Amino acid sequence: MKKAIFLAGGGARGAYQAGALRCISDILGKSKFPVDILSTVSAGAINGTQLAQHADDFDVATQKLIDLWSNLSCDKIFLAGNADLFKSVARNMASMVFHMNWTGGQHLLDTAPLQKLLCEQVDFNRINQNIENGLLSAFEVATTCFESAQTISFVHSQCHYAGWRKIRHYSESAKITHEHIMASSAFPMFFPVAEIGDLHYGDGGLRQAAPLRASIKLGAEAILIIGTRKTPTEDGFIHPKPIVDINFAKILGSLFNAFLDNLDRDLEHVHTINTNYQLMDNAAKEKSEWREINTLHLTPSKDLAKIAVEKEVSMPFLLRYLMDAFGHKQQNGDFLSFLLFEAAYTKDLIDIGYNDTMQRKAEIEAFFAL
Fold first, then answer.
1. What is the pLDDT of residue 368?
2. pLDDT range class, residue 253, cuts 50, 70, 90
């Protein structure tokens, strides 16, 4: 059975995926890469580079992820010095007040360090060679094109596949480079857009209505999904507590979380199709374009936003001051949890990811036994 891993976005929350993947490696106890297809977006795309680079050894790949997230700091992702942040704020203020179109005016944080990190730690030639050699069937990186206002899935596939052009989402064959990863992980307003060719791209979760589409189109019959947000209550209903005054941080946190909402909807859609497919007789199944898709969804058991608030002190001073100005502490820290690229926070998420996954060991073993 052809299997895929889908790695969702979530900024610094991506550390949770590192812990979960490391646990899967320990559970399976084998070095062979356990799936055929790797589908990624945003922070998941960053994690995907290590998996694809070491597709010949899953144990090494997951240990590299642990090392990466355990030694992370904000200044390895964006320019976090006081002078850099002050200049950025000044540029953006001048851009808004005086309508000056200065370079750097459309984002707050310069991600030059992330690009440097990717170029130093990831051999993209090796990734593409691994795909050509069949160690990995396909690697997808989802982005958003600002010119076309569509989700673009850049796909490098070892075998022929039927590309797709759906409403607001199409695929494009490409050998994956750091440019695709930078584009996929570019938070709107906070991280700069990335140029690929003559077009401009940003975070792939921005308009991604069907996150699992690529895995299914590439032939997956079973998809392991590793999310970065706590699963809602069983009935799906969240019991809210009234907030006296909604602040900017709450709105931004909701915006960033909205990038993850489509995954829940897409999973619900897949489950509905599975139910309808099972009701068909064999003759109808043979004529149908549908097929049953097995899924296993791993999500945090704890609220990662609350942990971020507890670890906020590890963030550089001026950046912490800016976050405080947005009001994140009063309204649950969702916004902060995306940007807290500090080991004090990410190590906790690694442990949670590992422990959560170990709690589901039987399900993991059953999934990979399919």
1. 96
2. confident
Instruction: Report CA-CA distances (Å) from 239 to 233, 235, 306.
Output: 9, 11, 17
Reduced to 3 states (helix: H, G, I; strand: E, B; else coil), residue 140 is strand
Provide the angle, in degrees to the nearest 10, between the axes of the packed helices 82-98 and 317-326. Answer: 40
Smallest Cα–Cα separation from 194: which of 176, 208, 209, 178?
178
Decide: pTM greater than 0.90.
yes
Question: What are φ and ψ of residue 57, in 5° steps?
Answer: -155, 95
Which residue in this structure is represented by tokens 């704890």?
302
State yes or no: pLDDT of 104 exceeds 50: no
- Identify the three-state secondary structure at position 204: coil
HSE (side-chain half, CA atoms, 13 Å) at 245: 6
Q: What is the C-alpha separation between 194 and 190, in angstroms, rounded?
A: 13
Residues 288-336 pLDDT 10s: 888 999 999 999 999 998 899 899 888 888 788 777 776 655 555 888 8
Buried b / exposed e over 234-253, threshold 16 CB at 10 Å, is eeeeeeeeeeeeebebbebb
Block residue for tokens 């899967």 = 24
pLDDT tens digit sequence for 332-358 = 588 889 999 999 999 999 999 999 999
Q: How far is residue 360's CA from residue 354's CA, in Å, rounded to a whole number?
A: 10
Q: How many CB atoms lie within 10 A of CB 358?
A: 15
Q: In 3-state terms, what secondary structure has residue 45?
A: helix
- As a whole number of angstroms, the distance between CA 172 and CA 141 comes to 10
Residue-wise DSSP of 300-364: -SS-HHHHHHHTGGGS-HHHHHHHHHHTGGGGTTHHHHHH---HHHHHHHHHHHHHHHHTTHHHH
